Amino acid sequence: MRYHAYLLSSHPSRTPSMPHADLKLDTPVGDTIKTTTCYMCACRCGIKVHIKDGRIRYIEGNRAHPVNKGVLCAKGSAGIMQHYSPARLRAPLKRIGKRGDGEFVEISWDEALGIATGWLGNIRKTDPDKLAFFTGRDQSQALTGWWAQAFGTVNYAAHGGFCSVNMAAGGLYSIGGSFWEFGEPDWEHSKYLLMFGVAEDHDSNPIKTGLGKLKTRGAKFVAINPVKTGYAAIADEWVGIRPGTDGLFVGALIHELLRNDWIDFDYLVRYANAHWLVIMAPGAADDGMFARDGEGRPLCFDRAAKHVTPASASGIEPAIVGEFILADGRRAVPAFQLLATRFLDAEYTPAAVTERCGISTDTIKRIAAEIADVAFNQAIRLPVRWTDSSGIEHEEMLGRPVSFHAMRGIAAHSNGFHTCRMLHTLQLLLGAVDTPGSFRYQPPFPKPIPPANRPGRNRRENGALDAAPLGFVHGPEDLVVDANGKPRRLDKAFSWEFPLAAHGMLQSVIRNAWAGDPYPIDTLFLFMANMSWNSAMNTTETMHMLTDRDANGEYKIPHIIYSDAYTSEMVAYADLILPDTTYLERHDCISLLDRPISDADGAADSIRQPVFAPDRDVRPFQDVLLDLGARLQLPGLVDDFGDAKYPGGFPEYMVKHERAPGIGLLAGWRGIAADKRGIGEPNPEQLKRYIDNGCFWHHEIPESARYYKMANRDYLAWSKGLGFIGSTDPVVLQLYSETLQKFRLAALGHGKQQPPEKDRARVARYFDPLPFWYEPFEWSGIDQNKFPLSALTQRPMFMYHSWGSQNAWLRQIATRNWLHLHPSTAALHGIVDEDWLIVESHHGRIEVQAKLHAGVEPNTVWTWNAIGKRRGAWKLSDDAPEHAPGFLLNHVISDVLPDLTYANADPITGQAAWFDLRVRIEKAPTHDNAAQTIKTSIKSSMNSIENSTSATP
Ligand code: SF4
Question: Between 20 and 30 A from 82 (CA), which of 500, 663, 689, 741?
């Protein structure tokens, strides 16, 4: 408005809709334009950086880029201020004061790398597992995981354990793919989208543009979310569900579909294991396993031939209900029958779940009827010929145009894995996985279920692990445990406590290192993980653990190395700082081996190229890691003479390194002639080809292969040809999970590997081969009458984790947060807008300021995440609102369960259960803004910590 007013007053003859020709909108604003990839959130849009006289003038979205097609969000534009942030680290630092005080001296890189090499060299010679190497929201896991494998430590992971591993694992163990950023709604054809709890930092611009397409076409968009922010704010219908009850809601939808026979039975027997026979032999070692023939093929009952036959046979009429006798006399029933029995139970009727979910029975029934109507009465048929994996040709592609998308909102609960599996079950019943109009896989997905790569456990002669530390467990034999079944990993991932922890458990590392449980470590090496602040549950106690000393006065975690580009809160708690560059000063690789940027119609990867040389004594972390590896003489990082194998650093590694013959970090322009894709010998010109193409590569899927990818002959061949999968066997979608049943059987006393006594009942209960809902653990462990409200953090769409608070432009949007609560909830407590109130959990209490917000379900309070900052961090002034009244809810979130038995996490995947938090609120009697404090009363192994503060260091 102001801009228009200016035009009108300056040029009264012109209207606001007719810009002055003299404005010369086409004139370049800079003298140079460089393409690269945005890193202001995890979406990884293509950008063009306009430079004038060596400084950035402007960042523009790259219209040719497959991710954003020119769209740029406010964060992306504000990358300028990230690059020039006063919080940038300037040189390597060595701690000279006490941990936490933030007193450092600048040192040379030689000295810094010498110190790191000394610590790490000793560990590698003695026990590589004494290095815990954990990274945060970096996009370099294809390098960091490989480096950890070469070092030989099992103690490696990135941040997925506290992000959305339930979503990833729930999907990969069910449909061989997942939502997150690995799949997408069919934006072109979907007529109905149900979205559960999605923040605006993954796949951000594609979702925004996709929602625009849906709304333009008049498709219905329903948001299931306790809070009406972000995407939910533009939904056609907002369903304010109570946190942690999504599984009940989805279970009730499934109940309604089953009750009304709104099921795509054809789809279920063609593409899923609905008809596979499950052995019914209570007490036996094979109870609940699939019946198989002598060649290991799952069996089904053919209704036409009236006998048991391989489930994958063509031309059969598989039974999906009934009881059948196998040739050896064992009883068996189809998996679908077990599923139907579960969800037709009274437990999942809309009437049974309505109160807990906070959603009326009418709404649940209506939504079930709406999605069924769209799926079956409004089915679409694309006139595209395709051939399935059995060789059967189809004239068209039948579509069920109901799509779903979900992420952390349903994942960050201790019941999240089964909730995610339940959501995939709902999709399968509708025939709505990778059909036109439904959810679509993005290459390299789908993968076999579970994916083939198992976690590394044993060391080779050269000290390297036999596989990367993270992977997918197929059964108890793959767990990373010792002979007594005790965890071998510091975070207890892949142990009987958290068997399918595919992304590790970064959130447990500091507690376990501090407690020496299961063993003490020597060095904690963190990259871009703000573990002393917003990346820690239980922030107050975590800061104590990082500074706690043993009886000899030595720190309980002896050495901490940290790499970051900025003075985040974690910097003060490290002994040695290796300063990273900004994202505009380095090469990066957005690899298909890591977190790809593919879309449903094509595979893609991309790079970052340095737009500027650093003007400080900082180095790209990837270069530093390769340098350290060479200094440590790690296998794969040095040549036969012991010299660095990649002296040119990460750009050289990106091009030359081969993970398997012909497979490297980048899939485009491989081969000497740059004419190979996916698989091909290294091409020295590869980076130039990427840069010439705007820093990305995109390869389209043939039209006949774009749907039914799990069983589409052309897709499976295309995917194998690019090295994404090892065989063209179809991926059979798993309604019933035999993998989970293997663990249950072990807990019931079968097999060589069985859980320790303390974990038996837990494994037996939660490793249910069919999804189910159970009450979140924190709720069961507390008096729910005392703590009646759920408390959530939401990701601000204008900031990415903690990074935004150093950014001058983004700080103009917000410098502080509030606790938002429904007006009716506020009235119950006598609270009015901007009152101060106390928020108390079973773990701690915090004083915050209230803002009333009708867009939240009344039993939930919420705040923006990571706006609150610790004084002394991010180069903010001492009176910055981020210190006070800004606050961090993490202070009242516990990283362990109320009874201290296990980490506060999902019992299958180890996903941090941030969103299980229950609190009570009351009006603060008095409030002294200048002395905002958090009093914590922590029930834990360290007894109590009193009077920690968030506002002061
Ligand atoms: S969505 Fe994320 S990656 Fe894309 S422009 Fe915005 S901040 Fe950058």
Answer: 689
